[in-house]
Every structure is written in C-alpha cells, then in structure tokens.
Amino acid sequence: MSTQDGPVVCVSYLASAELWSVTKFPTANQGAAIRSVEHSIAADGPMASAVLAALEVPTLLIANRIGGDEEGGRVGRWLQQHHVPTTAVASAEIGTP
C-alpha cells in the first residue's frame, strides 16, 4: 500500500444547467414569467470538485464528454474558472447534455 497522496476523484455526469428566477411558482400546467436566468452546471461531482479546488485540495473530475456547442463552451469555461481538472473533453460530434 502506498502512502503517497493522490487527488480526490469525483465521478459524475456533467451537463449544462440554468437557474431560473420567477416571481411566483406556477400551479400545475401553468407558466410563470422568468425574471432572470443564471447559467450553471450540473451535477454534484463538478460542484464538489470546484470546492476542493478552491480549498487547494488536489482533485480530478471524471465525467462524460461535452459538446462543441454553446452549452459545452459555457461548461468548459466554468470548469476552467473554478480550476477543475477533468477527463471531460469537448467533441463536435455530440451535444452537451
């Protein structure tokens, strides 16, 4: 057994997400006016990796590929801004989930 420390590995799916702000939650089968939209990422793995990176804990996110589309660009920039090393690569052949 090795005593060498390695990164904390987070295994997760990776997707583009949007957080919508509404004045009032709609009732069933109704709509609501959207006040603002904030772009984010999904799921827990990328978020946990970002927290670890901010705490300067070595981390690695193992995740699915992202697309070469606009959403994939946003996800890639988010990962870079939060200094998250990942196995996820952009591919023009797929769309970002």
From TrEMBL:
Any idea what this protein is called? Uncharacterized protein
Q: What is the lineage of its organism?
A: Bacteria, Bacillati, Actinomycetota, Actinomycetes, Mycobacteriales
In its UniProt entry, the species of origin is given as Nocardia uniformis
Highest taxon of the source?
Bacteria
